Each structure stands twice: as structure tokens, then as C-alpha cells.
């Protein structure tokens, strides 16, 4: 969606500002602890970079200047290792990447939903990703419904509810859904929760029970 990088010139300019006004004694102290100084500078640059990228991303979103790239193509053939999961109903390939207990439960759940045409366990680092302001997000699953709607699913254990990574992923996932077009694309974050549990404490998330109902109707 958006690219945000740091140029070498920007780093040098920042270092000039940091060292501006440093006296001889302070400079001597820095040379005696170069490792600590370097780590502090790197940490500060990363913090400023993150802040800048988030600000730029928000600005582009507000101005409706974010645009999805529809260039990703699913592989025609998909080969895995011995530990991959053999065919589960409606999976796109004969074998899919293994997952944790929640992901396996989700695979079995969607295999029995009539409206699901196919599903695929999206491989981390090599599959489809959403490009956000500070990093890529590879959703766990891609689902195609009989109504030709594409659904991205990210499953999360209850212990991860509300942490920074979870909040980041659901935020950029919902923005992707918006800019890609909700008539044809949807994004959901799924927690196991109870069958009657409310996932409202992580805004936009749903439970396994809720996503089953959504996929039946969407």
C-alpha cells in the first residue's frame, strides 16, 4: 500500500543535529562508549521512522490516496514438506501448511460451510501480504466464497488479544478491506472465544462462532 524508507543522507543529517553543540568533554565520553551511543541513536531513528511512516500512512488514507495492488497470483502447483496437512475439505491444494490448534480448528470449521468455494493456508513470508506503514502483514487464510468474494482471515489466540501486533494487523486489515472494495473483499480477525463471547474488546474482531455465521451469509 505504501512504502516508507530512510535515506543515508537523512541519517547523516540527523547525526549532525545530534552532535551539534557537543563539547570536547561530551565527545570524549561518547567515544568511550560508542556501542551505547550507537544503540541509542539507532533506537531513536527507528522510533522517528515509525512515527513518520504512521503519519504518512494516515495522511494518505485520509486523502483516499491508498490503492491496493492486485498483482498477486496463487501458485498453480503447491508442494509441501512431509509435515504438511493432507487434503481437508475445500482446501485449494492437496496439502496445506500446518498450523496451530486454533488454525486447524478453523480449517475444519470452514471445510463444512456450504458457501465456501475454497480456502488456502496463506504461507508466511512468501504468500499474499498487506503492506502497512511499518511492516507487512501475511493473513493466515485466503477464502473464496461461492458469491466470488475474497475473504482474508487472521486467527489469534486469546493471549494475544489487544497487544500491539494484533492491533496493528486488524487496523491495516480493515483499511485494506476498505480500499480494495467491500463489495468483493473482506478482512476478519478471529479469536476462538466462547460460542456466545463478545470480541468487542478488540474492535473489528469476531469469534469462531461468529465467523461461521458470517461465511454462511457473505
Number of helices: 6
General shape: elongated
Radius of gyration: 22 Å
Q: Profile the largest sheet.
A: 5 strands, mixed
- Report the order of strands and helices: HHHEEHEEEEEHEEH
> Please, what is the oligomeric state?
single chain
CATH topology (level 3) name of the largest domain: Trna Endonuclease, Chain: A, domain 1
Note the gap between the termini.
25 Å
The total strand number stands at 9
Name the strands of the widest sheet in spatial order.
3-6-7-8-9
Helix content: 25-40%
Low-confidence segments = 194-200
**Which range does the strand content fall in?**
15-25%
Which CATH-level-2 architecture of the largest domain?
3-Layer(aba) Sandwich
Provide a descriptive summary of the structure in words.
The protein contains 6 helices and 9 strands. The chain has helices spanning 8-19, 24-32, 34-62, 101-110, 164-180, 208-217, and strands spanning 85-86, 95-96, 116-121, 130-131, 136-137, 141-145, 150-156, 185-191, 205-207. A hairpin with a 4-residue loop joins strand 6 and strand 7 (150-156). It starts with 7 loop residues before the first helix and ends with a helix.
Amino acid at each position: 500500500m505504501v512504502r516508507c524508507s530512510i535515506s543515508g543522507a537523512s541519517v547523516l543529517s540527523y547525526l549532525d543535529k545530534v552532535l551539534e553543540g557537543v563539547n570536547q568533554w561530551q565527545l570524549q565520553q561518547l567515544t568511550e562508549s560508542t556501542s551505547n551511543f550507537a544503540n541509542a541513536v539507532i533506537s531513536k531513528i527507528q522510533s522517528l521512522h515509525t512515527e513518520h511512516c504512521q503519519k504518512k500512512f494516515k495522511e494518505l488514507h485520509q486523502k483516499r490516496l491508498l490503492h491496493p495492488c492486485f498483482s498477486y497470483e496463487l501458485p498453480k502447483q503447491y508442494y509441501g514438506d512431509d509435515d504438511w496437512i493432507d487434503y481437508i475439505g475445500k482446501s485449494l491444494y492437496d496439502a496445506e501448511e500446518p498450523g496451530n490448534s486454533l488454525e486447524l480448528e478453523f480449517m475444519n470449521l470452514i471445510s463444512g460451510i456450504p458457501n465456501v468455494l475454497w480456502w488456502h493456508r496463506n504461507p508466511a513470508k512468501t504468500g499474499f501480504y498487506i503492506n502497512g506503514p511499518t511492516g507487512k502483514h501475511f493473513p493466515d487464510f485466503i477464502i473464496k466464497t461461492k458469491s466470488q468474494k475474497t475473504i482474508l482471515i487472521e486467527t489469534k489466540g486469546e493471549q494475544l488479544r489487544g497487544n500491539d501486533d494484533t492491533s496493528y494487523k486488524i487496523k491495516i486489515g480493515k483499511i485494506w478491506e476498505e480500499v480494495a472494495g467491500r463489495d468483493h473483499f473482506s478482512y476478519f480477525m478471529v479469536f476462538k472465544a466462547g460460542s456466545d463471547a463478545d470480541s468487542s474488546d478488540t474492535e473489528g474482531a469476531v469469534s469462531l462462532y461468529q465467523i461461521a455465521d458470517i461465511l454462511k451469509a457473505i
